[in-house]
Amino acid sequence: MNISMKEHWNEIYEALDIEELPWQEQIPEPSIKLLSKCHINKDETILDVGAGASTFVDYLINQGFSNTNATDISEIALNKIKERLGEEKASSVRWIVDDITQPTHIQNLRDIAVWHDRAVLHFLLEESQQQMYLSTLKKVVKKGGYVIIAAFSLEGAKKCSGLEVKNYDQNLLAKFLGEDFHLLEYFAYIFSMRSGNVRPYIYTLFQRN
Q1: What rounded mean pLDDT belongs to the chain?
Q2: Reported pTM
């Protein structure tokens, strides 16, 4: 595991309450919109990659999805979701502390119906990191499964949380995933931070052939 990256995110999640996180969404509306296009059964497997302290997991539980996996490099981040959910709801989720660039647990998953990534891929700058992300995705997402990726758009910020990012549009993401996946939908989205600053995103939905 990338210890320096783990420490970086642990420090951020330890220092700030969930409400203070600049990227935190009260309701993850763009992700919900794309999930609704997937038409999966409530017992199919969903993987939230880089869940952080996101409310997407809350939404899945409240909507009756019963096979949710939430992973993040920061155990502190995942613990914040558990605290918010409470013991009963948290017990219905499989929590995985792992590094998507050096996975030891994620790659053992199978038959993922929906891979959801809001703002993880764009932090992976090195080719080796990107290829490990992609090979893991291909290993765990089933045929006919869906991939939701949201990243900073070409017009978006070049840095976030003190880290440089790689910007994308739908064509770059399609090229990255390759011919095994086809693009079903995409849209630009402007996220407004509590500070008043805005973050332009590209949201995409792919399906595995």
Answers
A1: 94
A2: 0.94
